[in-house]
Specification:
heterotrimer; A mainly alpha; B alpha+beta; C mainly alpha; B: alpha+beta; Immunoglobulin-like; five-stranded mixed sheet; C: mainly alpha; Cytochrome C Oxidase, Chain A; 16 helices; 4 strands
Chain lengths: 199, 261, 579
């Protein structure tokens, strides 16, 4: 190393940072781990199905029209989540609350349909232990439901916090992170739906 | 008689034992050499560069990037490893595990592992294994052999005793009734996990008559360490004699079929 | 910047129990993880009695064990399996990882990059408490109905499905995984976003790099185990059959499950986590060793770039070597060849790091301080661990050595004489920073030599046992003829393990005594260059009185033309004193 003094006036060290906010970076990393979780289950599904002697067709064993309706419900809720974020960016609290309420309501609707679907399976005496197909179906959709419930909790908290903290400097970042998470839950369903119900 | 077990590798008793041992010995010689050379160098560095008054540390020449002199020993180790892979590991591995040799039906044995015993199933003179059914399993009929099947009449079922002939390969089909076990005969240098739901083939050609030990090498429950069997390797003549003398277990077992407890 | 930094917390509970300060959380992790390591060690000391003197009652302790676990004080196979499973679980998931990542990483990473705290302090607190809950659940499983898990830390189904105790283990694992995930996100965001001005990536200390790579491994490798654990949980609770094939007969009874599952699926998923996990165990201690060596040789590390590149490539490669744990599992023989090749490739960067560390000694002015002794011992010990991995990674020789004591010897040389030795050295090295006092040197040296000798006496005989063909996980090694001649080695190993416990007592005493009574230490007692030494000992809430400016790389020791032989990263070049 050359003599430190010999250098002409050294440049003052400049800030270094990824340029992405903590919340956003954090949620992307979290989603990366979630991707790994769901890919594990999808991979296991593929492996188990390939090793199975026979596998029922999804549309014969499951309620496809209801699941299609649920897909539409989730996609709509993703749109309303985007609207809620857009309203938050515009500092429009009533607008934000309206769209957030729609998002949460649609998530509940999704769960109600899901409960009905599970219930009708249980009525026909179909349980996770019935066959490996049912095990995959209940576990994958059940885990997805847990994520929907997680989304409801996060979104409700934001709705509840928005009264006091709407102008908090971190609030917008939190809405954005919740939005990313909610889209992820939506995307998982968009993979699940064809993988389990249609093929 | 000199014990076949000691502080080193057990006696070699199968045709591929020598190949496995060659690798173990070669790698250990290499490991030992590498370690001793490094250790001498290491101790030298510690003594030579210990802290002394007035002798400052000497910096390496300024260096950037990801390549440095430390990669040279690395390169040597890597070349050794590549040679091991292509000239030793892959050829020997494919000989032992890759594909089983073609053997006549009489040289086939089924090994059915369960908590905590080894059931050895010989097809008998007809070379056909009798049908087995899960609901026929009973402690007097551990494999659930269906004795109405003619192929089952002359089958031999032994518990914890495996007879093998020298001079020709035997094909062993490994299955498990309950959990994962592992078929492990140290003297043969063979080990293979037995996974329930799978039938895993394995071949072995013993070349040294004697009595050996078969152990379970995969944790299989509370009595895992008691799960063992005796392996008796015989010359082809002795083996043929033994096969004849081993009474088909049908006589004993058939009296029990149909009886309820 | 997070607003909690502005006002330091008041009150004992907020300050020391539910603290959001990374330093307090790190010390909570430190103490908890060392206690768990001690508990795991006690388990193995009990097990080692069964190995050395099978069938005889354990003196003294045997009386206190319940009769169903240890009739007449003799350890039953079931109890041995429980201890064995919990020893592995505790050491890996509750001991070494929380120590290397949760404790050292949490304390030092923000300091070394010049950050006031972690990016998400509340998340940081949460990950400690979730970890503690998981740990207590694991320990508590001993007194819950069904007892502790007894299917090994690897929990291979179908054994894990039919054995009692496994459900609690799985719940515990889910908590531990959650804790690790939260921690990993925190570490990555902190490293990427909170570095002080001038702290470019290639100016970060090796330890920070090691934590960053370890955090990525945790982030991406743990979720597959979580998925696998969820499926095993379903198999146990909802009686699905993800891992259960058709028609099992367990102890003469038909097993009621629909079947169709694959036991090998679990092994693939488990090792997909557990191999990267090995590097999570190893990389932070390697980082610690690098820091200590650079500091005590008084010269820059040899090949900083090589070490960083090697760590990154280890991280990436560790995801495609997992099935070398499964060469004899019944997996396709052709697939084995692929994993054989990747396994040999991953040894290359490991050797590179080790070589760099040894070459760093060349030209140095080596101070044999207590932490340096531990760091130096790491090199040959990790060398033995690495070299003995060679015959295990090679398919053919693994047929013989797989699941024998050779494997136990190999990974204990890596994790115990490697990682734990390094973590002990790290404790001595950073103790002055944590508590503003130094640990006693004489006791430290006694601890070092005792530990090193005992550890080698515990683990080296295992290589001989393994070569003689002895299997792991036997509670009674004398049950097999081929294991009888080597039985004296078990006695040696056991006695050494008990002595190893005795030589830890001075360490424990030294640690707690020095917290309050140790010799007072200055801010930078080791004359080190990295940023953690630029703040007071112990650092106040918010760490740095003013944000440090980083002017240079991490290891500027013995620069020419300077009066001192160290040039801290934050020393302003405009105000340096010439020789």
């Amino acid at each position: 190393m050359s003599l430190p003094q010999a250098a002409t006036a050294p440049a003052i060290p400049a800030p270094v940072s990824s340029g992405v906010s903590n919340a956003k970076l954090g949620i992307w990393l979290f989603l990366a781990s979630e991707v790994m979780l769901f890919s594990t289950l999808f991979t296991s599904y593929v492996v188990l199905r390939m090793g199975a002697a026979s596998w029922p067709r999804g549309w014969e064993a499951l309620n496809v029209p209801l699941a299609t309706l649920n897909t539409i419900v989730l996609i709509t809720s993703s749109v309303s989540m985007v609207m809620a974020y857009a309203r938050a960016v515009q500092r429009d609290l009533p607008g934000f609350r309206k769209y957030m309420a729609i998002t949460i309501g649609l998530a509940y609707l999704f769960l109600i349909f899901k409960c009905y679907e599970y219930g009708s399976h249980f009525e026909h005496n179909e349980w996770p232990s019935t066959s490996i197909f049912h095990a995959v179906y209940f576990t994958l959709t059940g885990l997805h439901c847990l994520h929907v419930i997680g989304g409801i909790i996060v979104n409700s908290t934001l709705y509840w916090m928005s009264g006091k903290n709407f102008d908090h400097p971190l609030f917008l970042g939190r809405v954005e992170a919740a939005g990313l998470y909610w889209h992820f839950v939506d995307i998982v369903w968009i993979f699940l739906f064809p993988a389990i119900y249609l093929i | 008689m000199k014990s076949i077990y000691g502080w080193g590798l057990p006696v070699e008793a199968s045709t591929y034992a020598k190949d496995v041992d060659f690798g173990i010995r070669l790698i250990h010689a290499a490991m030992f050499t590498i370690f001793i050379l490094w250790a001498i160098f290491f101790v030298y560095l510690l003594v030579r560069y210990r802290r002394r008054e007035g002798v400052p540390a000497k910096r390496d020449p300024e260096h950037h990037g990801i390549f440095s002199a430390s990669l040279i020993p690395d390169l040597i180790v890597m070349l050794f490893e590549i040679a091991l892979i292509f000239f030793y590991a892959i050829p020997v591995w494919s000989r032992i595990k890759g594909h089983a040799p073609d053997v006549p039906p009489a040289n086939r044995i089924d090994v059915v592992a369960e908590q905590f015993a080894w059931n050895i199933h010989y097809p008998g003179a007809d070379g056909k294994f009798g049908r087995t059914e899960m609901d026929k399993i009973h402690f007097s009929n551990p494999l659930g052999l269906d004795y109405s099947d003619p192929a089952a009449k002359d089958d031999i079922v032994l518990a914890n005793e495996l007879h093998l002939p020298t001079g020709r390969p035997t094909l062993i089909r490994l299955t498990s009734l309950d959990v994962i076990h592992s078929f492990w005969i140290p003297s043969f240098r063979i080990k293979q996990d037995i996974v329930p739901g799978m039938a895993i083939p394995l071949w072995v050609e013993p070349d040294r008559p004697g009595t050996y030990e078969l152990s379970c090498a995969q944790l299989c429950g509370f009595a895992h360490s008691l799960m063992r069997a005796t392996v008796i390797v015989q010359t082809p003549e002795d083996y043929a004699k033994w096969l004849k003398s081993a009474a088909p277990s049908v006589a004993a077992a058939s009296t029990n079929t149909g009886q309820s407890w | 910047m997070v607003d909690t930094h502005a006002h330091p917390p008041q009150g004992f509970i907020q300050k020391y129990v539910f603290s959001q300060d990374h330093k307090i959380i790190a010390l909570q992790y430190l103490i908890t993880a060392w206690i768990f390591l001690l508990i795991g060690f006690v388990f193995i000391m009990v097990m080692r009695w069964s190995l050395a003197f099978p069938g005889t009652p354990i003196p003294w302790i045997g009386r206190f064990l319940p009769a169903d676990l240890a009739p007449n004080g003799v350890i039953s196979g079931q109890f041995y399996n429980s201890l064995c499973a919990m020893h592995g679980t505790i050491m890996v998931f509750l001991g070494v990882v929380p120590l290397g990542v949760g404790a050292f990483g949490n304390y030092l990473l923000p300091l070394q990059i010049g950050a006031p705290d972690m990016a998400f302090p509340r998340l940081n607190m949460l990950s400690y408490w979730v970890y503690l809950a998981g740990g207590l659940l694991m320990l508590g499983s001993f007194i819950l109905p069904g007892g502790a898990a007894q299917s090994g830390w690897t929990s291979y189904p179908p054994l894990a499905i039919i054995n009692p105790g496994q459900t609690v283990w799985l719940f515990g694992m889910v908590l531990l995984i959650t804790s690790s995930l939260l921690g990993a996100i925190n570490f990555i965001v902190t490293t990427l976003n909170l570095r002080a001005p001038g702290m470019h990536l290639m100016r970060m200390p090796i330890f920070v790099w090691s934590e960053l790579v370890a955090a990525f491994l945790l982030l991406l490798a743990f979720p597959p185990l979580e998925g696998a654990a969820i499926m095993q949980l379903m198999d146990r609770i909802a009686h699905t059959s993800f891992y259960v094939p058709k028609d099992l007969v367990v102890l003469g009874m038909m097993h009621k499950a629909s079947g169709g599952g694959q036991p090998l699926l679990w092994q693939h998923l488990f090792w997909f986590l557990a191999h990267p996990e090995v590097y999570v165990l190893l990389l932070p201690p390697m980082g610690i060793v690098a820091e200590i060596i650079a500091n005590n040789t008084r010269k820059p590390l040899h090949g900083y770039g090589t070490i960083v590149a090697s760590m990154l490539s280890i991280g990436a490669m560790s995801f495609i070597v997992w099935a070398h744990h499964m060469f004899v599992s019944g997996m396709s023989a052709t697939l084995s060849n692929f994993f054989l090749v990747t396994t040999m490739i991953i040894s290359v960067p490991s050797v590179a790091i080790l070589t760099c560390l040894i070459f760093s000694l060349m030209g140095g002015s080596i101070r044999f301080t207590t932490p340096m002794l531990f760091a130096l011992a790491f090199l040959p010990m990790f060398g033995i661990g690495g070299l003995t991995g060679l015959p295990l990674g090679l398919t053919v020789t693994d047929i013989y050595l797989h699941d024998t004591y050779y494997v136990i010897g190999h990974f204990h040389y890596v994790v115990v004489t490697g990682s734990i030795i390094a973590l002990m050295g790290g404790t001595y090295h950073w103790f002055p920073k944590w508590f503003g006092r130094r640990m006693n040197d004489a006791l430290g040296r006694f601890h070092f030599w005792g530990t090193l000798i005992c550890m080698n006496c515990v683990f080296f005989p295992m290589f001989i046992l393994g070569l003689a063909g002895q299997n792991r996980r036997y509670y009674d090694p004398t049950a097999h003829l081929h294991d009888l001649p080597t039985q004296p080695l078990h006695v040696l190993s056991s006695v050494a393990a008990w002595l190893l416990f005795l030589v830890q007592l001075p360490f424990i005493y030294n640690f707690f005594h020095s917290i309050w009574r140790g010799e007072k230490s200055e801010e930078n007692p080791w004359k080190a260059t990295t940023l953690e030494w630029a703040c007071p000992s112990p650092p106040p809430h918010g760490n740095f009185t003013e944000t440090p400016l980083v002017w240079r790389g991490p290891y500027e020791y013995s620069p020419e033309g300077l009066k001192t032989d160290w040039l801290p990263q934050n020393a302003d070049p405009r105000s340096l004193e010439a020789a």
